[in-house]
Amino acid sequence: MLIFAGELDSGPRPHVAADIARLFPHAESAVQPGAGHFPWLDDPASFTRTVAGFLDRGRAGSHTWPR
Fold first, then answer.
1. Could you report the per-residue pLDDT of 2-39, keeping only the tens digit for each?
2. Peptide bond preceding 12 in cis form (omega within 30 of 0)
3. Which partner from 14, 15, 45, 62 sits 20 to 30 angstroms from 24, CA to CA?
4. CA Rg, the chain, in Å?
């Protein structure tokens, strides 16, 4: 699970995204610098790199995915 927030987002704030991620095993949080509530619109390339990296790590077996 990836909990994503923009650095300038008013909800969830980046520290709240990190707190939420800590509630779930194997979850991660990510903060996109300079982005607001819609980071995929603010900087699509950065958003895509972050999400793709998270998914690639899961495919590589670094997480225990539920079956």
1. 999 999 998 778 999 999 999 999 899 999 999 999 99
2. yes
3. 45
4. 12
The answer for residues whose C-beta is within 8 angstroms of residue 44's C-beta and 6 or more apart is none
| Concatenated DSSP letters of 6-62 | ETT-SSS-HHHHHHHHTTSTT-EEEEETT--S-HHHH-HHHHHHHHHHHHHHHHTT-
Tens of pLDDT, residue by residue over 47-64, are: 999 999 999 988 776 555
Cα–Cα distance, 45 to 22 (Å, whole number): 26
Is 2:28 a contact under the CB 8 Å cutoff?
yes
